[in-house]
Amino acid sequence: MGRQLPGIGMRKVKSLFAVALSFAVWQVVRIWFPQFHVHPLFGYIYAIIEMRDSVEKTRQFGLRRIKATFLGLAIGLLALPLSERFGAYAGPGIGFAAVDLLIILTGVLITLWLAELLRCENFCGIAAIIFVICLVRDRNTDVNSYLYAILRVFQTLLGVFSAWVVNTLICPRHEGENG
Questions:
Q1: How far apart are CA 48 and CA 80, in angstroms?
Q2: Which of 49, 138, 150, 160 has the highest Cβ tally under 10 A?
Q3: pLDDT tens track for 2-54
């Protein structure tokens, strides 16, 4: 006997709605900033990750993710000038990479420690990921480093918000309900 194929349940359908909502909101943002990419990559990622099976879990996990996201952004924005300044002293090539890596490693450690201290619980890693996203980017583009970091965090919040809207307003399911 073959294995039965999985069904397309409500959580999968809600994830699709959340991704579509992220896309729609991002297109409104692009009216004022047409140079932005068509797809909000981080919005999609976090709309999918944040989709939970109940309204309560979406709210609970979403608030922790947002706290962790802002923590990672704050530390990332503080580390950006260090990366740019010390990287310039080190010069191009391996010197720059070594200095940048040292700043990234230090920042990840500080971010993880602070996230635990601030009780981000299961989202300490997300705080560190947001920190890394702020620092690691293609430096061959004309996009300002600070704007890039803020955009990525905005997309993260967009994904969390989209999952919350879909799970709370469009397809609500509360703890203990079947479905």
A1: 29
A2: 160
A3: 788 888 888 899 999 999 999 999 999 999 988 888 999 999 998 998 888 77
